[in-house]
Write a structure and sequence with these properties.
By secondary structure, the chain is an alpha/beta fold. It has helices spanning 2-7, 17-37, 79-94, 109-121; strands at residues 47-48, 60-64, 70-72, 75-77, 99-103, 127-129, 132-133. The protein folds into two domains: 2-37, no CATH class; 47-133, Nucleotidyltransferase, domain 5 (2-Layer Sandwich), CATH 3.30.420.270. Strands 4-3-2-5-6 form a five-stranded mixed β-sheet. Helix 3 (79-94) runs parallel beside helix 4 (109-121). The radius of gyration is 26 Å and the shape is elongated. The N and C termini lie far apart (85 Å).
Amino acid sequence: METGQDERRLLAQINVTPFVDVMLVLLIIFMVTTPMMQEGVDVSLPKVESGALKADDEPLIVSIDKHRRIFLNDRPFRPEELRAKLEAIRKSGGAERMVLLRADESVPYGFIMSAMADIRKAGIERVGMVTEPGER
């Protein structure tokens, strides 16, 4: 009678194969969708040859689209609001933050320089321009 009970012992291991399968599917989904989420403001950047900038902190991105709308990290602002927001960021400990200016190539130079002046008037000293690599 004891031999029948020995054959029906319970297996006390966890099968992790379904868990690994689900995790791999989720990883693939995130790898495919992440680049789509980083679109931002549609700006046609000018193409020039330049080196990459080194930045310690995550920079703030000021974008100007072809309709001369100004965005700070994809959030629209009027020029006077942008300056006030950058001043508030600088005063709250972001004095060393870098601001990268992305402007559509069809935006007049004077408008871009006006936006850059507003950034500098807000007390931000580290300002960079974003371009696309030129063709060789």
